[in-house]
C-alpha cells in the first residue's frame, strides 16, 4: 500500500540485532513505536517470563529504537517527531493487567524524559494512549462478552477504538499541526479516564 516503506522483520527484544538492523536503515525524520505485548495474568500469578518479555518489548525496545533513530536525527541536524503508543492502562488499574499497566506507565514517563532531553535538538516526543483497540491482540484479550461489556460500560462513547482512531491521532502528532506539542499524552479512550 505504501511504496517506499521497507519493513524490517526482527525481534525487538534482541538488542544487538535491533542495533544492526535499525542502525543500517534511515535516514529518519519520524518514528512510531507501536510494538507491544499484553500478557494478562492476575498479580499473584505473574511469571518472571511474562514480566521479562513485557519489559523487553513494551519498554526496552522503545528506549533502544528511539536512541538509534534520535541519534541519526541529531547527526543529520533535522527536526523530528517520535510517537510512542501507550495505553489508557498507563493511568488506570485494570484487573489482570499488573505488568501491562506498569510497562505502559513507565513508557509514559520515558516519553516525558525523552521530550525534555531531545527538545533542544528539535525532536518532539509524545504518546498516544488508546482504550482497547480492535486489533488482533485487542480481539483476543477482549473477546469475552462479559469482560468487554464491563469495559465498554465505562467508556462514555460506548465503544472500543478502531485502528483508524489511533492512526489519525498519531498522524496529528507526527505532523507540523502539533509543532508546539511535546511531552504530552493524547488520550484516545472514548472518555474512559473521565468516567
UniProtKB/TrEMBL annotation:
The keyword Oxidoreductase applies. One of its GO terms (molecular function) is carbonyl reductase (NADPH) activity. InterPro entries: L-xylulose/Carbonyl_redctase, NAD(P)-bd_dom_sf, Sc_DH/Rdtase_CS, SDR_fam. PROSITE patterns: ADH_SHORT. GO terms for biological process: glucose metabolic process; xylulose metabolic process. Keywords: NADP, Oxidoreductase. It holds the Pfam family adh_short_C2. Homotetramer. Belongs to the short-chain dehydrogenases/reductases (SDR) family. This is DER reductase. It comes from Trogon melanurus.
Amino acid at each position: 500500500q505504501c511504496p517506499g516503506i521497507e519493513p524490517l522483520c526482527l525481534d525487538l527484544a534482541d538488542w544487538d540485532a535491533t542495533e544492526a538492523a535499525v542502525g543500517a536503515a534511515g535516514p529518519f525524520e519520524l518514528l512510531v513505536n507501536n510494538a507491544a505485548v499484553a500478557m494478562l495474568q492476575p498479580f499473584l500469578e505473574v511469571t518472571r517470563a511474562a514480566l521479562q518479555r513485557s519489559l523487553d518489548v513494551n519498554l526496552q525496545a522503545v528506549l533502544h529504537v528511539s536512541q538509534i533513530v534520535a541519534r541519526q536525527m541529531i547527526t543529520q541536524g533535522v527536526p523530528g517527531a517520535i510517537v510512542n503508543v501507550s495505553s489508557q492502562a498507563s493511568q488506570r488499574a485494570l484487573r489482570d493487567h499488573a505488568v501491562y499497566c506498569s510497562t505502559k506507565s513507565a513508557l509514559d514517563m520515558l516519553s516525558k524524559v525523552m521530550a525534555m532531553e531531545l527538545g533542544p535538538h528539535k525532536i518532539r516526543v509524545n504518546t498516544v494512549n488508546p482504550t482497547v483497540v480492535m486489533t488482533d491482540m485487542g480481539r483476543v484479550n477482549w473477546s469475552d462478552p462479559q469482560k468487554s461489556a464491563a469495559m465498554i460500560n465505562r467508556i462514555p462513547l460506548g465503544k472500543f477504538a478502531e485502528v483508524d482512531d489511533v492512526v489519525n491521532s498519531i498522524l496529528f502528532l507526527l505532523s507540523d499541526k502539533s509543532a508546539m506539542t511535546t511531552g504530552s499524552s493524547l488520550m484516545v479512550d472514548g472518555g474512559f479516564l473521565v468516567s
